[in-house]
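Researcher: Re-running this chain for the archive, since the previous output was lost when a drive failed. Same request as before.
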Amino acid sequence: MDGRSGEAGWEAYLGSLAAFGMRPGLERVSALLDRLGRPQLAYRVIHVVGTNGKSSTTRYCEALLRAHGVRSGAYLSPHISGWAERVVVDGGPVADAVFGAAVERVRKEVAGLPRDLGETTQFEVLTVAALLAFAESRVEAVALEAGLGGRLDATNVVAPPVVVLTNIALEHTEVLGDTRELIFGEKAAVIKGGDAVFGELDGLEDEARRVCAVAGARPHFLRPDLRPGDLAVEGTPDDFTVSFAPDGAGERWAGLSVPTPALYQVRNAALAVAAVRLLLGGLDEAAVRQALAGTAVPGRLHLVSERPLVLADGAHNPDGVRVLAQSLAAVQVPRPTVGVLAMMQDKDYAAMLDGLLPLLDDLVCTQASEPRSLSAAALADAAAAAARRRGQKAVAVSSIPDPHAALARARELAGEEGSVLIAGSLYLLEDLRDVLAGAAG
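Model: Regenerated structure tokens:
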């Protein structure tokens, strides 16, 4: 097929699939992979699930694999700058031509699926195309980020020797359940044996042990203090130590750093170190240090520019906002601090606003191009109500629907000595991708 027209064709095809929304289930993905010769069996997988931190942990896993001489891959979502960004091979996005060809192959097989399986969704096509592209790129190991949930997520078609479950908070309750226990059950269903590395579970440890016992898996918990079989981390983003005792005997990697002030990335990096250690059987400390120090995660307390200081963070649920607030307190961003926020209708945006408003002097509400986005006006109304509820009279709230115009206004309000925080939705970061592409770090 012709390069330019073919590229437009596969991108237009992916765009057209957005109309079919989200349809949890594995039937279509499994059928497509069978028709394609089961490419997902060609490499080992670290499957990453959880509420927050999945993309960061996945990126760190890929970097660690690559630093140890493994031809590595990573599957990420959502993208910020382009579809192929979701599929990383050997440290960089797969070539558009490679991913486009994989999408076209999947598209052909979609046409042959039985009608009673229903319409194939965008995420299903993306996932199958990614699994195919990895095989055709001859990767040896893949860090695979789950989408929504786990049990019925399109990525749950692999038999991973290692699973990472980053954390659990209330999200997508209409699909996953309205308690942390139910959500944990949906996400932990991807465990099928091997090893499972758990981040902060806040009381769900016994349930994790039960799930692992049923699946025949070995659990490893992130704890404040090191115990046999588990891991611990201490320090700050510019100097931290990971300790791990997978077989009872302790191992230790010191002097680690990640290129971000975000405190939460220390935990995500520790989970990745443990996961890759379990997959490979051993790690080189110098390689671990190099891999983490060189891995910047787009949209995670990412420095966009200075004067004013502009930071972008993908916090898109209350738990993400909580850890963002902790990191901002440690950084001590200059005032005035102006927020540029967009939020999705199906998120707990009231709780998110409660967490973000104390950080801000002014707020410019905008909206993402994603159809689920709240309108700028509706978000501004919700923010004003939250400010009144909190008794926070000083914060000024305005609404500008266009994200670029909203950011320009926020820069004006901040002045050269202040700061701007872009947050609330990963889709907002995608809409501002031209700005973020020039980000420092």
